[in-house]
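Open question from group meeting: does this chain pack into something compact, or does most of it stay loose? Before anyone orders reagents, we agreed to write out a predicted structure and look at it together. Recording both the input and the output here so the notebook holds the full record.
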Amino acid sequence: MRAYLDHASSSPLRPAALDAMLPYLREHHADPGRVHHEGHVTRAAIEEAREQVAALFGARPREVVFTSSGTESVNAAAFGALARRPGHVVTTAVEHSAVLEAVRRGAGAVTEIGVDRYGRYDAEAVLDSCNDDTTFVSVQLANHEVGTLQPAAEVAAAARARGITVHIDACAAAGHVPVDFGALGADLVSVTAHKLGGPKGAAALLVRRGLRFPAFVVGGAQERARRGGIENVPAIVGFGAAAAALDLAAEAGRARLLTDRLTAGALAVDGITRLGPTGIGAGLDPSASLPHLVCLGVEGVEAEPILLGLDRRGVAVHSGSSCSSEALEPSPVLAAMGVDADRSLRASVGWNSTDDDVDAFLAAFPDVVSGLRALRTQTPGDQA
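Structure tokens returned:
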């Protein structure tokens, strides 16, 4: 039995989501934009899912615009806002690549704010970088690599008071900590399904009521003309069902217990540190981090051989940001934090993780690390 500890990349599909999806894969195939009975069936399913997603994220159903992924949601926010009001953009150095690449391409001038050694940006630094030409600010609610919770609501309140459109990327946080669209006070918030036990192929952009900007995907009037193209009905239905099935308080509490135990066991190995809110030095309060995610620094060994060694022992973890894993590139988040970007390991739990998963990691991790360190200290004569 393998131990899957990469829920921050993508979490297994919840049974409730699969059960909800199956009828829309087997029987209900109609275009929800049609006026016949079959079309009404699929339209009703989408609108029920919209209500379920809205309820989880503290939004009105009409503020939920379904997209195909978190990346599309982010791109729709950035390109749409900048098409509406071109100008200077302020973001941070630890944003997901979907944010950074979108604003670099879509804006004439971009200011990227640095972070402290825990991966946290300073709200005042973000706001101080806004000027009379600033039209768009995009910041994350929680970091996808080290789990740091960010002062996004503080940024949103002050920036919007200055007439700046504000986007918050909540994809890493959604389903793991409360995400309340109304309380955050942003114009736009991105969330996704597959990191909380929903299906791949469904996400949403939460759009403040009354905000209008050009659609990113064009060619149809779907999603009230905010996202063209026929809707992915099964995936949207699955997203809604996963949102309804999620017990945030219980799951977050269980996740924190698992990651605390994993962290304690990992830190018992020489040369291991936790990176992020409870990491270097005294660190920050553990409540300043996502409950389900741990990033570890490993002295003396690069990430790739650790990943492969754990994988051979039946344990799946991750290193580097989720969209650069194929190249196993050093984490830009860790580089921005000023720590070793080549020697990090991210373990993350989810709705179906168990103590056995953590036990498997703790049994394999010390042996893998010590074995790799021993190889590095051998001379050519020793190896012969």
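Observations to bring back to the group:
Residues 3-10+247-376 form a domain with the Aspartate Aminotransferase, domain 1 fold (CATH 3.90.1150.10).
The two ends are 35 Å apart (CA to CA).
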